[in-house]
């Protein structure tokens, strides 16, 4: 995980690619999806407008949303991100804002965040399964 924290690390992209690929394994998915420190690290990186690996991070988030424990993202509170247009403190709202700005490439020229809709769809399906 330390490799991912270093944005300048030349192997961070490879490490993220590996995580995207192995996060389809149920045991690894459970471990990654339930790790709050890891989740915050991903959220901090993906909301950084200079993050070079934002597309891979959005792919990883999309994979992690396959875990039922990832529903907590819907109500997860975190600090507002000054570079986003909203002052949202909800992680899900921040990702929605990120996607809206990212589609045009105006937020981060390295990514259009095209994998975030898969995350949104999986979270919507998960919330539909809950009894009212």
Layout: helices, strands, pairs:
Elements: H1 2-5, H2 12-22, H3 26-33, H4 36-46, H5 54-64, H6 91-102, H7 116-129
Summarize the structure.
The chain has 132 residues and is mainly alpha-helical. The chain has helices spanning 2-5, 12-22, 26-33, 36-46, 54-64, 91-102, 116-129.
The number of helical runs is 7
Task: Report Rg.
Answer: 14 Å
Shape: globular
Order of helices and strands: HHHHHHH
Number of strands: 0
- Which structural class best describes the helix and strand composition? mainly alpha
Largest sheet: none
Terminal Cα span: 38 Å
Overall pLDDT score: 89
Stretches where pLDDT falls below 50 for ≥5 residues? none
Helix content: 40-55%
Explain what this protein looks like in three dimensions.
This protein has helices at residues 2-5, 12-22, 26-33, 36-46, 54-64, 91-102, 116-129. With 132 residues, the chain is an all-alpha fold. The longest helix has 14 residues, at 116-129. The mean pLDDT is 89.
What key attributes describe this structure?
mainly alpha; about 130 residues; 7 helices
């Amino acid at each position: 995980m330390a490799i991912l924290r270093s944005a300048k690390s030349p192997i961070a992209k490879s490490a993220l690619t590996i995580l995207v690929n192995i996060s389809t394994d149920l045991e690894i998915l459970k471990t990654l999806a339930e790790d709050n420190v890891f989740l915050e690290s991903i959220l901090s990186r993906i909301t950084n407008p200079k993050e070079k690996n934002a597309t891979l991070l959005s792919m990883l988030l999309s994979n992690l949303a396959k875990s039922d424990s990832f529903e907590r993202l819907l109500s997860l509170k975190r600090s507002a991100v000054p570079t986003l247009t909203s002052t949202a403190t909800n992680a899900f709202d921040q990702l929605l804002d990120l996607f809206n700005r990212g589609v045009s490439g105006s937020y981060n020229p390295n990514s259009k965040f095209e994998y975030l809709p898969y995350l949104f769809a999986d979270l919507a399906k998960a919330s539909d399964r809950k009894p009212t």
